[in-house]
Write a structure and sequence with these properties.
Blueprint lengths: L1 H14 L2 E4 L4 H14 L3 E7 L5 H14 L2 E6 L6 H5 L4 H20 L3 E3 L12 H9 L4 H4 L4 H10 L25 H16 L6 E5 L2 E5 L5 H6 L1 H10 L4 E4 L6
Parallel strand pairs: 1-2, 1-4, 2-3, 6-7
Antiparallel strand pairs: 5-6
Helix pairs in contact: 1-2, 2-3, 5-6
């Protein structure tokens, strides 16, 4: 693993200056930390702000960036102004990432930074990731992939370095809760976000509320199902108040 870390540091050093697509998740936080360690002021982190991202994650990203010491820029993105994204077909993630990376490239140029990099890790190469196609088309680099670092490596190294994100659950944007073909709206994203925020307030660490018209399908890890069932009455009342008429628990769970 130390060989992979050394390779990552060498890649970043060769890049010379970078703008990091930084969400505050496990991978992008680790990348931002190492980039700052190697490049100092020549590494800048940028976080996208949009209704597809929970506000709590923006605040978390801000706090971690401050702890790392890296310069941090917040960028308002306009996915909901793109009809291709709003129509929500199977290329949704491609449209989103292409728009964000285009903006990041613009900022990098303005800041005099040579490269835009993202936190895709080696494990992601085995998944269907339309966003990686957008990255390749626009010349965005993925140093964690290039160094052969997978999620397990990144969590372990993050723990070693004392990063608070080391055991953070995997995240995805709120648009992923909406099935393909259902148009994405601000009101729908807000409803999903409020439902998940409420469930987090009960003590859950990882949760997804999948939107299926009047049905809310809740996904939590199997180990958290007991808590959810204990709080069943309150959960049903809260999600009914948000407009869902049928509240279900997915027994397959997360993870």
């Amino acid at each position: 693993m130390n060989t992979k870390l050394g390779h990552l540091e060498s890649i970043l050093n060769d890049l010379g200056s970078t703008l990091i697509a930084y969400s505050g998740g496990v991978d992008s936080t680790f990348l931002a930390f190492i980039a700052h360690k190697v490049l100092g002021k020549k590494a800048v982190a940028v976080t996208a702000i949009s209704p597809i991202h929970p506000e709590s994650e923006t605040e978390s990203a801000r706090a971690i960036a401050q702890k790392i010491g890296i310069r941090h820029i917040l960028l308002e993105t306009k996915e909901l102004g793109d009809p291709s994204f709003v129509s929500n077909d199977t290329s949704r993630c491609y449209y989103c990432k292409k728009g964000i990376f285009t903006e990041l490239l613009r900022i990098a140029s303005e800041e005099g930074l040579g490269w835009v990099i993202d936190g895709s890790n080696y494990d992601d190469t085995s998944d269907n990731r339309p966003g990686m196609i957008a990255a390749a088309e626009l010349g965005v680099r993925s140093p964690l992939i290039e160094a052969g670092l997978g999620k397990k490596d990144i969590r372990s190294l993050s723990h070693e370095f004392g990063l608070p994100s080391w055991d953070k659950p995997s995240l995805s944007c709120l648009a992923t809760r909406i099935p393909y073909g259902t148009p994405i709206t601000v009101d729908l994203l807000r409803r999903i976000s409020e439902a998940e925020d409420y469930l987090y307030s009960l003590g859950l660490r990882e949760v997804r509320v999948r939107h299926h018209g009047p049905i809310a399908r809740i996904e939590v890890p199997s180990s958290s199902m007991g808590l959810l069932i204990e709080e069943k009455k309150r959960v049903v009342e809260r999600l009914h108040a948000l407009g869902y008429t049928c509240i279900t628990l997915d027994l397959e769970g997360l993870g």
